[in-house]
Amino acid sequence: TNHSDSPLTRHGDYCLFTATRVSHIHEERLDSNLAMLALVEALFMGLSVSRADATNQAVSQTLRATEHRKY
Fold first, then answer.
1. Using CA atoms, how far apart are residues 22 and 33, in angstroms rounded to an integer?
2. How far, in Å, are 24, 46, 55, 65, 69 from residue 40 at the CA level?
3. Which of 26, 34, 48, 52 lies at a C-alpha separation of 20 to 30 Å from 62?
4. Which residues contact 28 (CB under 8 A, 6 or more apart)?
5. What is the pLDDT of residues 8-51, one digit of tens each?
6. Torsion of CA 59, 60, 64, 68, to 10 degrees
7. What are the contacts of 42-47 at 24+ separation with CB within 8 A?
8. How crowded is residue 25: how many other Cβ atoms within 10 Å of its Cβ?
């Protein structure tokens, strides 16, 4: 979230904030969304690396389950 007083922050053990400001201008909202997406991607990659064996197993299982599909 971008707001420390958000109701969501009361339910989390940890709160992560981005430094961008949200406005009603479409281009600036895109900047905020990209900052939040980058944070989520960094967390995902950190977990993936720290759990490399489980990550590799999950990726292999997903590939086997979807290999017959052509998108």
1. 9
2. 23, 10, 17, 25, 28
3. 34
4. 20, 21, 22
5. 888 888 888 777 665 656 556 677 778 888 888 999 999 999 99
6. 60
7. 43/16
8. 9
